[in-house]
Specification:
This protein is mainly α. Helices cover 67% and strands 0% of the residues. The chain is built from 15 helices and no strands. Helix 4 crosses helix 6 (90-104), helix 4 (44-62) crosses helix 7 and helix 9 (154-163) crosses helix 11.
């Protein structure tokens, strides 16, 4: 692995502005407008939820660790800003991405295992020829420019536990938020440490408001603007942080001392909240039917 994130290919080649990412996808769609119209897809976040669930099914059957699953999700998101989904068999891409991720995370499994288990889960949508998965692996590596090392936010979150005196429920919620952020574009927009901080910020916001996600959506930005930055109140001088409000103040002051823009953290938190909001519209059957129609109609299962 690269010595640190700042020297990594992830930072140098796979971090985009929102506008540049939008333009990349627009250019991809402009290449074949007729195909886009012929095979419409649900909102990208809903499709990401579906793909994540399918990855989870395959991972559970094989016994894949969480980090490999997270790395696979990054590969899939990167791949689909290079190649339009309508030119691929998404199920084959999912299986291949997870197979490759296991290699990179040093928990490899035999290619036949992946092929067999994928065929059990998606019997009519995965080629029976094992070599197809091997060919897809080379295709995936090529489109990712062989830049396969991924830095995740979980390590930063572990480091923040003692710094911000996080309780176990706050850690658990922040951990869940990090896992959910892979369903958004955030891995392509901000560094992993910002994701971890945003997860803590959102966990504290939810705990402070005690009104669920709708309440959090209305208070994330307000908290950022309302909380003062006090020179006397800092992690170094704090001994015990009892109330959620004290912890939120501690976090905001710590961000200011570290030179991290609170607005970036707020934007990330709002992105996660918007994911949870659209999640209510998720329909697995619709996603499954759209993908199956694509694969069968274009004979991508051969």
């Amino acid at each position: 692995m690269a010595a640190n994130y700042w020297a990594s290919t992830q930072r140098r080649h796979w971090l985009f502005s929102r506008e540049s990412l939008r333009q990349i996808r627009q250019d991809l769609e402009d290449e074949d407008r007729d195909l886009i119209k012929q095979y419409p897809m649900v909102d990208r976040r809903l499709l990401s939820i579906f793909f994540n669930q399918q990855l989870g099914k395959l991972g559970k059957r094989i016994g894949i660790k969480q980090q490999a699953l997270a790395t696979a999700q990054i590969y899939i998101r990167r791949f689909y800003i290079k190649v339009d989904i309508r030119y691929t068999n998404p199920y084959l891409i999912l299986a291949t991405a997870l197979y490759l991720a296991c290699k990179m995370e040093e928990t490899p499994h035999h290619i036949k295992t992946f092929s067999q288990e994928a065929r059990i889960i998606w019997p009519d949508l995965i080629p029976s020829d094992v070599s197809k998965l091997g060919e897809c692996e080379f295709y995936l590596i090529s489109e990712l420019n062989s830049q396969l090392i991924v830095h995740h936010p979980h390590r930063t979150l572990e480091n923040l536990r003692s710094t911000l005196e996080l309780a176990q429920d706050e850690m658990s919620l922040a951990w869940s938020v990090i896992n959910d952020h892979y369903l958004t574009d955030l891995p392509l927009l901000v560094p992993p440490h910002v994701i971890a901080i945003s997860a803590v910020f959102l966990a504290m916001t939810l705990k402070t408001t005690q009104g669920g996600l709708q309440a959090a959506a209305g208070t994330v930005a307000a908290l950022a603007n309302a909380l003062p930055v006090s020179e006397e109140f800092s992690p170094a001088g704090a001994t015990t942080l009892d109330s959620p409000q004290e912890k939120m103040e501690n976090l905001v002051n710590w961000l200011a001392e570290g030179g991290i823009e609170i607005q970036v953290v707020v934007d990330c938190s709002q992105e996660i909240v918007s994911l949870y909001d659209i999640w209510e519209q998720y329909n697995e059957k619709t996603c499954r039917e759209q993908v199956a129609r694509l694969v069968k109609s274009r004979a991508l299962d051969k």
